[in-house]
């Protein structure tokens, strides 16, 4: 799927919004009741392997990974890698560059929020959830480009900082 988003990233957006679907987790059947009881009682399984589980539907991540939201994860993986590259390239950054790096970290965290895939699965407001994921990823891409290719647009940065300033002192070097 190609989107015309030249104002926020151009050709990089086309490459970033890949269409392949991928399953990053192997879905597992929920634990049998007796097995749950043993685990809750502190009895370890003999094979010493911890099985994945969650409070979500059917005992695993179906609410967060399913046919309605699996498209999100390849994009988040690429953004995660790009954020790691930024953190390695700029372990210490002054002023405007530091602000842009903090905002890139915020945009990535906001794109990764578990609310969006959950809303997509529930179908309560899927258009809103899709828009939020895409908006945060597109802003992240634009910040990445400004930090690596062009220069940071201070006016635009100020605008998005005022819109989404969760974790005002987030440490971008966490991604190193």
Main β sheet profile? none
Radius of gyration using CA atoms only? 19 Å
| CATH-defined fold name | immunoglobulin/albumin-binding domain-like
- How many individual helices? 7
Q: Any guess at the CATH architecture?
A: Up-down Bundle
Quickly give the structural class.
mainly alpha
Counted up, domains total 1
Please report which band the strand proportion falls in: under 5%, 5-15%, 15-25%, 25-35%, 35-45% or over 45%: under 5%
Uncertain stretches? 1-36
Q: Write the CATH homologous superfamily.
A: Families 57/38 glycoside transferase, middle domain
- Identify the overall geometry: globular
Strands, count: 0
Query: Helix content range of the residues, please?
Result: 40-55%
Cα separation of the termini: 31 Å
Topology order in helix (H) and strand (E) letters: HHHHHHH
Mean pLDDT over the residues: 77
* Level-1 CATH class name: Mainly Alpha
Describe the SSE topology:
Blueprint: H1 11-16, H2 33-40, H3 72-89, H4 95-111, H5 115-122, H6 126-148, H7 154-163
Helix pairs in contact: 3-4, 3-6, 4-6, 4-7, 5-6
Fill in the keyword field for this structure:
single chain; 176 residues; mainly alpha; immunoglobulin/albumin-binding domain-like; globular; disordered N terminus
């Amino acid at each position: 799927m190609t989107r015309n988003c030249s104002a926020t990233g151009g050709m990089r957006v086309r490459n970033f919004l890949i269409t392949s679907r991928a399953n990053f987790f192997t879905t597992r059947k929920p634990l049998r009741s007796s097995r749950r009881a043993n685990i809750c009682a502190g009895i370890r399984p003999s094979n010493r392997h911890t099985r994945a589980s969650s409070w979500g539907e059917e005992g695993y991540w179906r609410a967060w990974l399913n046919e309605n939201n699996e498209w999100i994860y390849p994009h988040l993986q690429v953004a995660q890698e790009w954020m790691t590259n930024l953190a390695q390239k700029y372990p210490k950054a002054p002023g405007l560059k530091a602000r842009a790096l903090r905002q890139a970290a915020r945009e990535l965290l906001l794109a990764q929020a578990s609310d969006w895939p959950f809303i997509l699965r529930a179908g309560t407001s899927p258009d809103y959830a899709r828009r939020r994921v895409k908006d945060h990823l597109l802003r992240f891409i634009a910040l990445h480009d400004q930090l690596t290719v062009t220069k940071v647009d201070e006016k635009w940065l100020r605008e998005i900082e005022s819109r989404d300033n969760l974790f005002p002192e987030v440490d971008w070097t966490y991604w190193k």
